[in-house]
Amino acid sequence: MKKRNLKDKITLDPIMTLLVLIVITIVISGFLSLIGVQVTYNSIQDSVSFNFTQSLVSVENLFSLSGLKYIFTTTVSNFVSFKPLSSLIIILIGIGVMEKSGFLKTIVTLLTKKAKKKTVTFWLVFICVVSSIMGDLPFVVMIPLSALIFIYGHRSPYIGLIASYAALSAGSGISAFLTSTDSALMDYTLMGAHVLNRSYDLGTGVFFFIMLVAVILISIAITIITENVIAPRLPKYEFQEEEMEEEFTLTKRQLKGLVISGFAGLLYLLFFIYCIIPGLPLSGALLDYSQEFYIDKLFSIDSFFSTGFVFVVTMFFVILGFFYGIGAKTIRNNKDLCDDLGHSLDGVGKPLVLIFFASTFISIFKSTNIGEVITASLANILSFEGLGAFPLVIILFIISAIATIFLPGSVFKWAIISGIAVPAFMNVGLSPEFAQVIFRFGESVTMGLTPLATYYVIYLAYLEKYNQDIKPINLFKTLKFQVPYSVVVAIILLGLIIVWNILGFPLGIGGSVTM
Fold this sequence. Notes:
Helices cover 65% and strands 2% of the residues. By secondary structure, the protein is mostly helical. Helix 4 (83-101) packs across helix 15, helix 6 (117-130) packs antiparallel against helix 10 (208-230) and helix 19 crosses helix 20 (432-446). The protein starts with 5 loop residues before the first helix and ends in a 12-residue tail after the last helix. Mean pLDDT is 88; it is low at 1-8.
């Protein structure tokens, strides 16, 4: 018998790796709590007087009886309420109908059969980057779809999965249009600005120009890295017989299915578009009118559109697949439809277990406050005296990138950093909106490198699903795939920041680098 390589012996299944990380986190929290690790930082919690408040955060000890009680009493509820769980299951119902009916294969093949590989990759990446305006939903939609798109193009689904996750992660911090996250961040940016200038205000287009350039450059860069660095290094993917059919020819039935599904899908979209346009007769019923900005009316926590958005998209997918199946005769009765509804949920057991351990790990790490302590400690660096404008720019970028690894949540992280960063920027003549841009750019660099990101587990689960190696997927290898993207994204975004800082280009409509 051949001796097994030592590296093969120590390869851990992602589930076991997550379990090890959970244990390590609990033990570290006990040690850090024992030695009294804590940090104070300036925050602005009074939106009337805008005075600084000294906030104290310390590491919570989970390596104790009370900590263990907390873990055992909250694990089930955390899993049930873990957003990727419900979102993924619901979205997969719609994707299953599109896939099993043949709609997805027909439309993707039709659109891409004459396109170059790099062109298909670019448009997938570009869509993933710009889809950040819809919040976190693109993670559960685009990751499963990207694998199928590449399979239908007779390429490894790994390429689509890795590229889409890189684009979604980088795109989470860059958007040419104001997102609901940007709007929430602006509230903290303005509170920081009002400490020094009560009349300071920000418009909805203050980031448009620099973000638009970033979206284009990042989309091109991720495409180049995918095709020239990632794809050549991936193992050959063995396709099943049904995935390697002869050259595609559009039949009359398929054409009829596309026409019927396109018409039905268009009517559905027009109905919901009308329902989110304010000011028209009987329109705007899905908006939250308690919000100021339109993006918040659309995607706020309390808006009907936001709370039902996953179901809206799922029903759109079901309609496309169902009506295509009716026209193409791939759905002939109710049994066919019901089978299609559950198609994508076949073999979902392992992903569900992954989601369970991922939700537990994220919940435990968050409850220890380790990420908050690290972020606050880094933010305090910005309060050092004597820092000039350029050092502040670089330091905030680096702080944002590092803090994101331990505290991925944008709003919570900026709530800690903004009270120190925004006044520090204003004191050296730099604008509050420039501070927010740098913060968002820093997030984009490392969002794809942290297993604490809420939707990382979707990426992990699908790499595991399409894994053809007898060895399990290594959790750290899945993050290693993202390193080349992270390095290049960091260079591009830092370069943009420096160019804008030196040349003084406007950040957007009414937004500038300096005061």
